[in-house]
Automatic annotation (TrEMBL), chain A:
Protein family per UniProt: Belongs to the GST superfamily.
EC primary class: transferase
Keyword line: Transferase
Domain of life: Eukaryota
SUPFAM superfamilies, A to Z: GST C-terminal domain-like, Thioredoxin-like
The protein's name in its UniProt record: glutathione transferase
Residue ranges the record marks as coiled coil: none
UniProtKB/TrEMBL annotation, chain B:
Any one of the GO BP annotations: glutathione metabolic process
CDD domains associated with the record: GST_C_Tau, GST_N_Tau
GO molecular function annotation: glutathione transferase activity
Annotated source species: Cocos nucifera (Coconut palm)
Protein name: glutathione transferase
Listed PROSITE patterns: GST_CTER, GST_NTER
Limits of the GST N-terminal domain: 5-84
Enzyme class name: transferase
Length: 225, 233
């Protein structure tokens, strides 16, 4: 193919794309960002990710990688000289991967349940989300970030939560994160949103809000159809 | 590293996830104590070692627990790197491809197979799930061609990450076929995978671990009955 360099196929509404951008920027890697219109996907995207046809896709020297968490681990291994994202000790690495998976399975899916349900079922989803966050808080311990003093792999994987959960709270009119119940998660959210990289890469909140409202509308109308 | 190490694996003979961990340990020639958890019961040790999910497998290495099958497999590969063939490839790009397919297999493909296993008789969704499982196997057939590069396994000369991720499910695929009366494995459609499956099941590190399909069917029926009973309560 003869293509050199790093390209990232993405979309500003996708929190999964943001994960990859954080990883690239923490490592100081130069890349070309290709914006995808998800209602009209480019032939390149379909060629590079034929299985899922989704963003993000990282193309490094002409070779594509899909799945945000897989891409972030790839970035850590391919550019291993600077800013490690995962610990090198195998046990700590396994623990890191475990909590990243927990965030994906419990918190991400849980947040979708909160956004897409109504009434009693929604309240139940909120309660489960709070329990998941409480469990996750245990892993944070007294550290500023999950990665310690600096942002690491779990912070990157969980990094959608600070802004997205806030927006979900606003849309559904229910508070999910109470500072008294989740003091460490609340502090982490503040520190994460305060980080220069996060501030610089934050997508326009009104656009993301509109997108999330649309998701909720679509699910609710499908349910009553 | 090697030598006196306390290594326990909490698991069950029927769980494909547990089989993954055991294959990895076999590939590295590492001895361990296998503690069988009965169906429907959870030991004190399991609850203590995996308080988040309370599920098998759990590898306990010198008292420290590691959970989630593919995380355990990678851990074993890293700790006993020198002891046996590499389970994950050494090149970062090939590793990313291996991880991509492991995620696909677990997150997209297996839930469809599971649907077939636990479906009640004459469930309309079974036929659709079967079609999707077959379509997934087609994708995996193409992936096998690319990854194996003409060799015996996804991992090349020896059993690797994708082999372990997919191969552990093959007994259950056959069980699902009998339980639901659907054909999932078609030699015409997936000739490479069928050849691979035979080689995988007879590989030294694997052969004694794969349960008999009839036993899996029996076990599957019990799991299905318990799930359906719980759902109606």
């Amino acid at each position: 193919m003869g293509e050199e360099g790093v390209k990232l196929y993405g979309n500003i509404l996708s929190p999964f794309v943001l994960r990859v951008e954080w990883a690239l920027q923490l490592k100081g890697i130069k890349y070309e960002y290709v914006n995808e219109d998800l209602s009209n996907k480019s032939p390149q995207l379909l060629q590079y990710n034929p299985v899922h046809k989704m963003v993000p896709v990282l193309v490094h020297n002409g070779r594509p990688i899909a799945e945000s968490a897989v891409i972030v681990e790839y970035i850590d291994e391919a550019w291993s000289d600077f800013y490690p994202l995962l610990p090198s000790n195998p046990y700590q690495k396994a623990t890191t991967r475990f909590w990243a998976k927990f965030v994906e399975e419990k918190c991400l899916h849980g947040s979708f349940d909160v956004l897409s349900r109504v009434g009693e079922e929604q309240l139940q989803a909120v309660k489960e989300m709070q329990e998941s966050l409480k469990t996750l808080e245990g892993h944070l311990e007294e550290n500023k970030f999950f990665g310690g003093e600096t942002i690491g792999f779990v912070d990157i994987i969980a990094g959608w939560m600070p802004s997205w959960l806030g927006m979900i709270e606003e849309i559904i009119g229910i508070k999910i994160i109470n500072e008294e119940d989740l003091p460490l998660i609340s502090a982490w959210i503040k520190d994460f949103l305060d980080h220069n990289l996060v501030k610089e890469t934050m997508p326009p909140q009104e656009k993301v809000m509109a997108h999330m409202r649309a998701i909720r509308e679509n699910v609710l109308s499908a349910m009553s159809a | 590293m090697a030598g006196d190490q306390e290594l326990k694996l909490l698991g069950s003979w029927a769980s494909p996830f547990v089989i993954r961990a055991r294959i990895a340990l076999n590939l590295k020639g590492v001895g361990y104590e296998f503690l069988e958890e009965g169906l429907g019961t959870k030991s004190e040790l399991l609850l203590k070692s995996n308080p988040v999910y309370k599920q098998i497998p759990v590898l306990i290495h010198n008292g420290k627990p590691i959970c989630e099958s593919m995380i355990i497999v990678q851990y074993i590969d890293e700790v006993w790197a020198a002891a046996g063939p590499s389970i994950l490839p050494s090149d970062p790009y090939d590793r990313a491809i291996a991880r991509f397919w492991a995620v696909y297999i677990d997150d997209k493909w297996f839930p469809l197979l599971w649907k077939i296993i636990i479906a009640k008789a004459d469930d309309e969704e079974t036929a659709e799930a079967a079609e999707q499982v077959i379509a997934g196997l087609q994708l995996l057939e193409e992936a096998f061609e690319k990854c194996s590069k003409g060799k015996d396994f996804f991992g090349g000369k020896s059993v690797g990450c994708i082999d372990i991720a997919l191969g552990c499910y093959f007994g259950w695929v056959k069980a699902a076929e009998k339980m639901a009366g659907v054909k999932l494995l078609d030699k015409e459609k997936i000739p490479l995978l069928m050849g691979w499956a035979e080689r995988f099941c007879s590989a030294d590190a694997v052969k004694e671990l794969m349960p008999e399909v009839d036993k899996l069917i029996e076990h599957g029926k019990m799991v299905r009955a318990r799930l359906n009973a719980a759902a109606t309560n």
